[in-house]
Amino acid sequence: MSWPVGILLFLATVAAMEAFAYAAHRWIMHGPGWFLHESHHRERHGNWELNDLYAVIFAVPSIVLLLGGVQLGWWPGCAWIGAGIAAYGAIYFGFHDIIVHRRLPTRYLPKSTYMKRIVQAHRLHHIVETRTGTVSFGFLVAPRPEALKAELKRRGRAGVRQGAGTTSGLR
Q1: Does residue 89 sit in helix, strand or coil?
Q2: Tell me, what DSSP letter sits at residue 43?
Q3: What is the pTM for the complete model shown?
Q4: In the list 21, 38, 39, 111, which could disulfide-bond 50, CB 3.0-4.6 Å?
């Protein structure tokens, strides 16, 4: 496989992973997988939470595709797809775990309109403590915070954490 085709496949995989992550977050994590994800909507005690198992679960296809494409003689595109999944995982970790949830110390403050928007959208997702009633399931693509606040208000703030309205600007 030529490098340009491989890079296009890699970039397409990274982009497709946002759609996959949205679907997995909305219909698996806030569905039958809530038993793991619920820990992420609660205060964390210690360095780990049950939700962290999703990182392991979602890494398996990447590892298998990389191994197959590089070592086992599978179609070379498998390696590019596996690398795209891994790259999305790294982007997700940097955005979600470091920037939004500050699981590693950093002095980074979002300054661009884009970064402020996705951070605020994710924080609005987290003010809802229940499995249902939340908004904004994407990670790198998010609706405007004003639209998310309006939707939470329309839903009657069902499941919204006590006191969240004052700290998030939700009215």
Answers
A1: helix
A2: -
A3: 0.86
A4: 39
